[in-house]
Design goal:
Elements lengths: L4 E5 L9 E2 L8 E2 L23 E8 L1 H5 L4 H12 L6 E5 L16 H10 L7 E4 L2 H10 L2 E5 L4 H10 L6 E3 L11
Parallel strand pairs: 1-4, 1-6, 4-5, 6-7, 7-8
Antiparallel strand pairs: 2-3
Length: about 180
Amino acid sequence: MEIKNAIFLDRDGTLNKGIVKENVDNFKLRPPHNPEELHVFEDISYLKSFLDRYHLFIVTNQPDIKKGHQTKEFNEFINSSILKKINITKIYTCFCLETNPGCECYKPSPGMILNAIKEYNIEIKSSYFVGDTWRDVGLCKNTNMTSILMDRGFYGNMKNDFLQRNLTPDHIINSFAELKNIIK
């Protein structure tokens, strides 16, 4: 049986711990920059229960590499740490800056999702996206996909980002164990 459904996953703040950015005007999380900051959440093991019916894709913005805050090697180390715990079909990464002209992949732009649809013949109507920021929910709005906000304790700090953009997630969870109540 060919799998046509997908669960798209944000990485930092969803699969692994996001780090609170210091010295910024409004609340933001960033990816880990070194092994001491990296913590892959144990609850990602719950995603294994969907592997017989869904492709799992990571869809992530990684501008810190272009900014010089993180290396491509450490980015790959984060990915490999996740892949040791869960089988991912493919990782889609945008290395652009938010301000790059002509970029169609930086979330909430749909480029990475559209690539997955084309490459794997994905049915977007029966797919889901799990992420922790307004960009992830905005991506779902831009692709007509069901959004699931992962609140690892920071949604309250970021709620204004959602309100300013008139974005509301379809579902809010605190753990991947809760997906069984949403995804059948």
